[in-house]
């Protein structure tokens, strides 16, 4: 194959690629199932108060860089506080929450993209059960409990 023929093959491949790329992007933008498209998939974080003793749980969540402050929320016993996060493409999204139920302030990284990305990916839900001993992440397939950071 001559150099000129090789150039024509490469040019034809570039035309095909440039024709298909917008179609693929439009399909990705309009699909209803985003499980395969991580750049536009929110993760829903649910934090359920299972402290016990009928005590309310005061929660204050923020992003690691403090760009997003979700303010203070008081969660009644057995109720759930919910918010959603759009993880970044670098895999570094992190939210931490301070929690208080009358025994002092406790905190935990409630969403760490490096830790939770695959655990919450199937359903896009990170469900946390908060107990005095620490928070437990559950996704229907497993439960992982952690100790408070402080």
Automatic annotation (TrEMBL):
Name of the featured protein: S-protein homolog
InterPro entries: Self-incomp_S1
Family, per entry: Belongs to the plant self-incompatibility (S1) protein family.
UniProt keyword Transferase present: no
Signal peptide bounds: 1-28
GO cellular component annotations of the record: extracellular region
Main location: secreted
Superkingdom to which the source organism belongs: Eukaryota
Species this protein is from: Linum trigynum
KW Nucleotide-binding (keyword) present: no
Keywords noted in UniProt: Secreted, Self-incompatibility, Signal
Compartments reported by the entry: Secreted
A biological process from GO: rejection of self pollen
């Amino acid at each position: 194959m001559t150099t000129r023929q090789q150039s024509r093959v490469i040019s034809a491949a570039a035309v095909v690629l440039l024709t298909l790329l917008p179609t693929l992007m439009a399909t990705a933008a309009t699909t209803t199932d985003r499980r395969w498209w991580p750049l536009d998939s929110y993760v829903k974080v649910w934090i359920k108060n299972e402290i016990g003793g009928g005590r309310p749980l005061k929660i204050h969540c923020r992003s690691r860089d403090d760009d997003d402050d979700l303010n203070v929320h008081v969660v009644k016993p057995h109720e759930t506080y919910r918010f959603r996060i759009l993880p970044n493409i670098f895999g570094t999204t992190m939210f931490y929450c301070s929690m208080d139920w009358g025994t002092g302030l406790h905190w935990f990284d409630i969403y760490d993209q490096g830790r939770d990305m695959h655990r919450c990916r199937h359903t896009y839900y990170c469900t946390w059960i908060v107990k005095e001993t620490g928070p437990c992440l559950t996704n229907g397939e497993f439960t992982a409990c952690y100790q408070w950071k402080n």
